[in-house]
Amino acid sequence: MDVVRKINDELAIAGQSTLQQFQLIADDGYKSVLNLRSPDEQDFLAHEQEKIEFLGLQYVNFPINAEEINHQLVLQLFPIISELPKPILIHCDNAIRAAAIVFLYIATKQGINFEKALQKAINLELL
After folding, report:
1. Residue 42 to residues 5, 14, 83, 94: CA-CA distances in angstroms?
2. What is the DSSP letter of 67?
3. How many CB atoms lie under 10 A from the CB of residue 106?
4. Among 14, 65, 98, 104, whose Cα sits 20 to 30 Å from the Cα of 8?
5. How many beta carbons lie within 10 A of that of residue 117, not counting itself?
């Protein structure tokens, strides 16, 4: 994990973290971790769910590929983000997918049409 980037009081993004870094995240008051990585990705933290839950955090693994982000996928993912205890750390391998998802989540919560938000994410090279 290079850096945890706090987006607002509820959401932060990061790349892949180590167990020691997850301990710091727990110590900083985070309540949940949402992992966007697939377990078959290189450098996926083995037994991440057990390690995160041992620290007292809620954990969800929702693997996505940046190329697959679409309206149907976010209809499944956004309720998870809404329901997880806050603050949430959302991570992937290099924080790019996490940034895209958080951008889309915030934009749609602010009333921006999903397709328009997706185009903005593409223009910002988040996807």
Report:
1. 22, 16, 29, 12
2. G
3. 15
4. 65
5. 20
* Model confidence pTM above 0.85: yes
Paired strand residues for 61: 35
Please tell me whether residue 60 adopts helix, strand or coil conformation: strand
Q: What percent of the chain has pLDDT over 90?
A: 69
Helices marked H in the chain — which ranges?
Answer: 19-27, 48-54, 71-83, 96-109, 114-123
Identify which of 10, 6, 13 has the alpha carbon closest to the alpha carbon of residue 31.
10
Region of 43 please: left (phi>0), alpha (psi -120 to 50) or beta.
Answer: left
Please tell me the distance from the alpha carbon of residue 14 to that of residue 9, in angstroms, as a whole number.
15
1, 13, 15 from 94: Cα distances, Å: 8, 9, 4
Could you report the per-residue pLDDT of 79-107, keeping only the tens digit for each?
999 999 999 999 999 998 999 999 999 99
Spell out the domains of the chain, with CATH numbers in brackets: 5-123 (3.90.190.10)
Please state the separation of Cα 25 from the chain's center in Å.
Answer: 14
